[in-house]
Structure of TetR family transcriptional regulator:
Amino acid sequence: MARVGLTTQRLVRAGAELADEIGFEQVTASELARRFDVKVASLYSHVKNSQDLKTRISLFALEELADRAADAVAGRAGKDALVAFANVYRDYGREHPGRAAAARMRLDPETAAAGAGVRHAQMTRAILRGYDLAEPDATHAVRLLGSVFHGYAGLEVAGGFSHSAPDSQETWTRILDALDALLRNWPTEPTP
Amino acid sequence: MARVGLTTQRLVRAGAELADEIGFEQVTASELARRFDVKVASLYSHVKNSQDLKTRISLFALEELADRAADAVAGRAGKDALVAFANVYRDYGREHPGRAAAARMRLDPETAAAGAGVRHAQMTRAILRGYDLAEPDATHAVRLLGSVFHGYAGLEVAGGFSHSAPDSQETWTRILDALDALLRNWPTEPTP
DNA sequence: TGCATAAAGCTAAAGCGTTTAGGCAAACGG
DNA sequence: CCGTTTGCCTAAACGCTTTAGCTTTATGCA
């Protein structure tokens, strides 16, 4: 019985790759065990249960995404930063659809707070430094940006925009133009 | 063996209620059979399989949501219509979290096109008649609105904004103000 | 070096959800 | 009142999850 060298880390990374191949929903302890050529029960020494495995994959993806975002934003400001930041999210979703789906998985608030969720919020806030938004408008804007990135990725993977003109890339570019314009001219008072 | 009177319709409606109670992900043929006090195999005369059941619940929710939206938008225009429309989505998510999750389920494009997906797109487009958007900007705007509604609901149910100031309702109102301002002043050309 | 011990991976088994095949009986049409 | 449809059943196979307890491997300390 040669040891394969299972680790929580290795399981999570392999699970992330598996998610990209077959979809996050389809990632299962059994399938993962098959990949490592190991009996299913062996995984349970490294992972609490199936839910725990998925949660860890989600947190891994969030971390990886935050790393990329931090990298992209460094040394940029204003619209330049906004576009770079947004493109990280979009590119990640296209390059790693399974991990991106994992990142969108609903985590209970405490788990999310302990993970990279905070980094994402802080980076989004950092983007807004290039615009002139005081609280609480900055928070509103952070939430708007989160909703758009989150929502667009979800709709795009669902095939919502595919095969219909104008193409998704064009829309994405124009949405970023629009968001930039909006942030530069955020309405302080509702206009009835 | 008294007959319960199972129907695809009844199964789907009960499945939708079940989703609101225990979460869409947890809706299972077994659980549904338990509710009707019927053996699981009996469901398979009315539903092709478990996936088919979920798809039907999703389509049901989309239809219900489209009905409400159509109702809300009737006789309104401009920001008034935008706000009413957006609030339908948000209220539905809070009133029927399970159905809303079902509505966000990824369907294959042909299934979605055959269902109420088209109505949603058309209504969103109708909202934009109150603003001055020519193609392709109108399409970009439709996609932006879809992303925001979709994304906000997803983040809100994940508890993203709960228990942190400012409260979610305030943000929602201000986001709608912002979107209204953006639509009235949509940037025709990127501003570098 | 050699042994003790913790950890890795295994077998076995129970539980639950899905799905199909085939059977009985209730409802319904003529 | 009879025949047909069909609603619901039993039975069984299959796959994923999870726990319990065992064997073997690796590792570190004497």
